[in-house]
Amino acid sequence: MSHRAADLPQLLSEARRWVEDALFASMEAAGEQPVTTAQASVFALLDAEGTTVSELARRRGVTRQTAHQAVHGLIGMGLLEQAAGPESARRRLIRTTAEGQRVHERARATSGVIESVLADRLGPAPVRALWAALTADRGEPPLVAAP
Questions:
Q1: Is 66 helix (H, G, I), strand (E, B) or coil?
Q2: What radius of gyration, in Å, describes the C-alpha atoms of the chain?
Q3: Contact assessment for residue 45 and residue 93, using Cβ atoms and an 8 Å cutoff
Q4: Which of 7, 21, 39, 80 is found 20 to 30 A from 108 (Cα to Cα)?
């Protein structure tokens, strides 16, 4: 990207976009079905036994309708499925299909290669420092007033 951001939120957003662009382009070049950012984020939020659409919406911080659209797009692609919950047939759980698990594992492996490319370009120490900074406990978001 040629544009330099003026603040940390914009820098973080541009860095995330760089990773997503590399991941999505690499997956499509490998013959995988294209997905949106919203659809891709669903995989990281699913519990092994399945997760309701309402819970996915809460975890993503979006409306139930928005989560429903992402989930049903992935169901249509054969990457997710709906199943009755163990305590009630009315409680629908979303979980990965075998194909969805394969694609998710490939995406994780591809992300690892992208991270290696980033380490080659920036050096391993900056990437380790980035990991440390992003995984450090930040505490609750502060409530501040600008001067």
A1: helix
A2: 18
A3: no
A4: 7
Contact 13, 28 (CB under 8 A): no
122-126-130 Cα angle (round to 5): 120
Q: pLDDT digit string (tens) for 97-112?
A: 999 999 999 999 999 9
Query: Model-level pTM?
Result: 0.84
Contact 85, 93 (CB under 8 A): yes
What is the reported pLDDT for 2? 55
pLDDT digits (tens, 9 = 90+) for 80-102: 999 987 777 778 999 999 999 99
Question: Are residues 61 and 89 in contact, defined by beta-carbon separation less than 8 angstroms?
Answer: no
**Going from the N-terminus, what domains does the chain have, and what CATH number goes with each?**
16-132 (1.10.10.10)
Tokens of 33: 């079905």
In this prediction, residues 7-15 reach a mean pLDDT of: 92
What are the helix (H) ranges across the chain?
Answer: 8-29, 37-45, 53-60, 64-76, 98-122, 124-135
